[in-house]
Amino acid sequence: MKYRRLGKTDLELSEIGFGTADNAGLMVKGSEREQLDAIAAAIEAGVNYFETSPSFGRGVAETNLGKAFKALGVRPHVGTMVEILPDGFDDIAVAIETALDGSLERLGLDGIDTLIVHNPPRKARDPNEPTWQPVTFEDLMGPGLTAFERCKRAGKARYFGFATEHCDPETVNRLLDTGSFHHVNVWYNVVNPSAARRLPSGVRFGKDYPDYGQILERARANGVGVAAFRVLSGGALSDPVIANGAAGRHPNAGGSYSRNPQLFQPEIDRSRALAFLKTSARSLPQAAYAFALANPGVTTLVGGFSDAAQMRELLGASDVPPLTPNELARIDGVYATNFGLT
Q: Are 120 and 164 in contact (CB under 8 A)?
């Protein structure tokens, strides 16, 4: 296992972390034995960063992660997200502190390493947003930082950050430029690398393919650590899904793609255009991880796992051959033709 420093902090994190989202599902739907085996194998392999959220299985992932840590007698670095619910916007600082207290109770910990606001930063709040109501620049710079400082003084959190799924990149870049944050979660993968680079004009951005406006590069320029998520494009960059579509998802997989498979289809359609990255020396998921790890602005990958076998496969991604110049050129050709989609 290789390690990378989280921005300007003193944390050295394994470049492959352990995500716990219900999209992959191991820490929500897997058996206790499966969970223990996977976490024990991850620790043995050198994984030292685990990231979770009360949104993953409505607290189930945090509870199961805490039980596993206790059973195994381990305390790796841990990050958890806090979601500001609609009724929490009257007092954002209290909402963050209350959410963190609930997470700590479920995890069985006195404190965590990174406190991450799950709500996406945008220019304005939107009470009609069907998932997480956005937070504004002022929300995070005002009561958000106030909450963190109180949590830090209480020994409940060491570092502060935010997630960026379906964010407004301009607002994110403003936040990163303040120097007030240590950590940012970034949607970054070979299907959509817009957080790190400008894409060819052939790419069609839209609701199912957002433009992340090079926020990863802005984080790097400001010394902010980056946890990359959705590295497998929600699981689309895998042989079973490439072959069978949404029906090829693992039995443990859940989340919105299970509730609404039609939301998953755009990821599948684009991922199929990149299936050539599988070679005799590396699997398609390993190629996807190798692509993300090649970016020096990435601190750690926090994709989730569906079972221990998948986890072991991905832990080998650090040692597979990197993508070749010819492969990278071919990827650019895929972007330029909008993945061959009409």
A: yes
8 Å CB contact between 94 and 151: no
Domain assignments of the chain as residue spans, ordered by start: 3-340
Query: Average pLDDT for residues 267-277, to the nearest whole number?
Result: 97
Q: Cα(248)–Cα(207) distance, rounded to whole angstroms?
A: 24
Class of domain 3-340: alpha beta
List the strands of the sheet with 157-163, edge to edge: 18-19, 49-52, 77-82, 112-117, 157-163, 183-187, 225-229, 300-301
- Measured in degrees and rounded to the nearest 5, phi and psi for residue 82 equal -120, 135
Q: State the amino acid at position 315 in one-letter form.
A: L
Rg for the chain (alpha carbons), in Å?
A: 19
CA distance 195 to 180: 20
- What are 190-211's pLDDT values in tens digits? 999 999 999 999 999 999 999 9
Task: Report the alpha-carbon distance of residue 304 to residue 216 in Å, rounded.
Answer: 20
Integer Cα distance of 113 and 231 in angstroms: 22
Average pLDDT over residues 86-113: 97
Q: How far apart are CA 37 and CA 60, in angstroms?
A: 18
Q: Is the pLDDT score of 63 beyond 90?
A: yes
Question: Which sign does the torsion angle of CA 276, 282, 285, 288 carry?
Answer: negative
Q: How far apart are CA 311 and CA 97, in angstroms?
A: 32
CB 48 within 8 A of CB 36: no
Question: What is the average pLDDT across 305-328?
Answer: 94
